[in-house]
Specification:
Layout: H1 2-39, H2 42-50, E1 52-55, H3 72-76, H4 86-94, E2 99-102, H5 118-132, E3 137-141, H6 155-172, E4 180-183, H7 202-221, E5 231-233, H8 242-246, E6 256-261, H9 266-269, H10 284-296, E7 304-309, H11 317-333, E8 337-340, E9 356-357, E10 362-363, H12 366-373
Parallel strand pairs: 1-2, 1-8, 2-3, 3-4, 4-5, 5-6, 6-7, 7-8
Antiparallel strand pairs: 9-10
Helix pairs in contact: 6-7, 11-12
Amino acid sequence: MIQKYLRQMNSRKWILSKLYCIIVAVLILSIILFIYTYNQSEAIRFVKKMKVGWNLGNSLDVHKTGIRNGDPKMYETFWGNPVTTKEIIDEIKSSGFNTIRIPVTWYEHMDEEGIIDSNWMDRVQEVVDYVIDNDMYAIINIHHDPWFIPTYENQKNVKKILCSTWKQIAQKFKDYDNHLIFEAMNEPRLIDTEFEWNAGTKEARKVLNYLNESFVETIRSAPNQNKKRYLMIAPYCNSSDQEALEDFILPNDKRIIVSIHEYVPYEFVMKKDGTRMWSKENTKDIDEVMNNLYDYFISKRIPVIISEFGAVNKNNLKARLEWVKYYVTAAKEKNIMYIWWDEGSSKDKKGRYELFDRHHLKWEYPQIVQILVQ
């Protein structure tokens, strides 16, 4: 009887010791998770919710039509894409994407006083609503407008147009919550100069810091949801070059996201007559980009979105698959979100970066899509 009692006591002690170990392990894991979460800023956690994105390129960003304040859908189809429909956006959503960047050009939709045509503004809103209604995140920007040249000579005029444009946009979307993000300018740079596609000049980088600050002040001064909306700003030409990043000054605001465009390595992903081949022995450029973005921003709890990237189709699907898998894995490891550039196509000509055929609602390269959204 005594032996049976002792056996029961030992059994209970064993169970209690195991239960104690489990409780301690859970507490340790909880502490580790808390520290990890705490070390990530609210903004980085927000960007994680955006998951992976797709660009509605060459639609609302059409420009150089020579027509002012015309039918909105005329511009949208001017480069060959069909009118954007909810069915297009639904298909993007159902394939696993959670964010759609909507590039928008505004200057052909303004009067001489800089007032945006209400029909154009309504059409932008309609497309944004397609996205928001799917519980996705939408990004709108100022894309191909030619006036934001960052020089001292232009600085005053650029600020005036930039702030006026964003003030009107902010008013239109004042009641939209954080599923709508504003991106100040697309690839602000010294167009048609030797400094266009590099880190720019000291002057240009300084002016751009001033314009980014002006953009943030304009949105924060706008009513309602704009007080706490997430905003995206870019260094010179959305570059991740060290020279551009060293001079890049972020406004003092907790809801800022850095926007980067990175097509690397250039010979493979962009150059028409460049190489069709890529392998894991050629990762230097990608690694350098991700390390720069981590060191300058992520490690300091500042979120980053690579808002444009991709590799042109050179009838080299196998190489593209290997490249995109390495690229997005490297980005994920650094907590960097990414958005594929898709310019769509006309009925007669396929887009170089096109993944989704908007005319027939089908994916051209589902294998690439699977890697992007996995």
